[in-house]
Amino acid sequence: MPNLHFELVTPEKLLRSEDVHMVVVPGVEGHFAVLEGHAPFMTVIRPGEIAIYSSATTITGRIAIEGGFAEVNEKGLTILAEAATEVA
Known about the structure:
Layout lengths: L3 E6 L4 E7 L1 E6 L2 E6 L5 E13 L5 E15 L2 E6 L2 E3 L2
């Protein structure tokens, strides 16, 4: 199964850069999921929690974010977050 390339960037550093199955993001109009092959788009994201999946049913990471922007293109998903913190 093809993987989605995911990058999470804050003003301080590149927090994540990895291939994943899916990422669920808190968008301003509701949560949205991004998988490999998703249509390109750009949107504002609201404060909330990003869920990172290694398979359809396995969450391997949760990250609290303070808002920012998300871009999906042919290279994958990039999130530019105002601030981000790993959730235990």
